[in-house]
User: Fold these one by one.
Assistant:
Number 1:
Amino acid sequence: MDRLGAGCHPLPVTPLDDHSQQRQPLFFPVVIATALLTIIGMVGGYLLSRRGGGGSGNEPVPVPTHTQLPAGQACLGQTQEMGVQAGSNGELRQVMRVRTDSRTVVWICQDDDGELFYHANKGGAEAPWVENKTALFLAGVQHDGQGEFWATAANGTVFRVNSDRLVIEHTNGRVEEQEVVPE
């Protein structure tokens, strides 16, 4: 029998890490995963920007509700008439009424189904009511559950109102703010 040389083993040796299996390329799965994560991030960013952005990011996300809110007296006759035209159910009752420093009065009214309506008039109830000139009626009002209401006009202008201010966000990016004053 031949003598084995130094460092040789009498039996065949299999290395600890088996290289006999061919490795699958990772390039395409990594590219697909990156593309999907990019799309998800872009959609999330877009949705956050549509929410209003501009804040510190610590504000609660408004959750629209259509539940019955505590309502007071019946809304004005002009509002009742506009509500009927907009398909309201039953008598509209006042949920909020505020007067701003520029003499605009805003009413948020609710029908029997909990649907909310926005009606504002420059100068208040005593001033002339001319729809789409001195007065504006909007259906489809949303409520964040914390005292802020908002509605979007046909031209895309957003009206936000709470007990402190009326904010009008025009489609060209201009923002009007009117402070609420005591009556």
Number 2:
Amino acid sequence: MKRVVVTGMGMVTSLGHTVEETWKGLLQGRSGISPITSFDASEYLVRFAGEVKDFDASQYMDRKEARRNDPFTHIAVGAARQALAQSGLEITKDLAPEVGVYIGSGVGGLNTIHDQIYVLKDKGPSRVSPFTIPMLMMNAASGMVSLLTGAQGPVWAAASACATGGNALGEAWETIRRGTARVMLAGGSEKAVTPLGMAAFANMHALSRRNDEPQRASRPFDAQRDGFVMGEGAGMLVLEDLDFALERGAPIIAEMVGYGSTADAYHVTEPAPGGEGMARAIRRALQTADLTPEQIDYINAHGTSTSFNDSTETQAIKAALGEHAYKIPISSTKSMLGHTFGAAGAIEAAISILSITNSIMPPTINLENPDPACDLDYIPNQARSGNVRVAISNSMGFGGHNTCLAFQRYE
């Protein structure tokens, strides 16, 4: 099997429109969560989120193309362009068939669905945009990135709810390992803070209702957590066959070494008791990476700030890693970014890599009253310096999906 390295990263989040802006905000322990501005949420049960604000799609694509694409595609293209720029990769005519794109989303073009339903209702069927289907379809982001960059290898869209970003990266890694492509641009994108999205998740009683203190609402592993916070964002990595990356003199940021993907087969929204499915995903990632628990230096947790998830993930980490689990620094960056659903696994993979390259781990903010059921080291409230050689990133999704990705310092 071929070795796979990361040569470029891109991010668009509620903390910033670039990797640098987001990383700086995370290390400062700054929250990107605030009252909703994209629509009037005054009558909603939950009125705050981690929105991506003031994103200018015309920086990354033609204005005409931008009008014909949903906002989730806009930020996907932005993050993809950033990742390609850092990698220095030129997709030539000869290379194009060896470059693939795997970009996933949890819900796809939810903004388009909302807007066009109102057009249909208020103005009639003849006024519905002919671009509606290409805008809302789940594969719109991966297809548009392929069109704009010329990538002609395998192009696909993952959809496994909040594990989507992890699955997209994991399957891209597998694609390069088996020699189907030399380069994969992979990740996830989500822009679901819409009237329908907010109402639906609020009515599920899944969201925090701390409307008076939105920046303190996402509090993973805290005893007073009361639900997750909706977030928006996109995260992209350029993955390459190591030999190809060395041949072209690419900037190698880190190496991706492991991937585990499992299902709970238990419940649509609740994780399996004891985190059994997540534990198997962690073990599988370590097995494919040929790593032992003692070699893990940092975990970016799924850590949604819900009662079930945080305690179950804690159990999963302990089940998979044994006594060493108590010695590993862990953080949930959803405490600052909110839960970006299909993008979360990709954004958090990039954050895990940044922890390796910068030897510093972001905090879990708002962790003020630790839950006795969550008794590991969650890096409360302040970033922590430390030698991070190996990091893993966990993701769990509605439907019982679990993924774990493993990265290590390139040597």
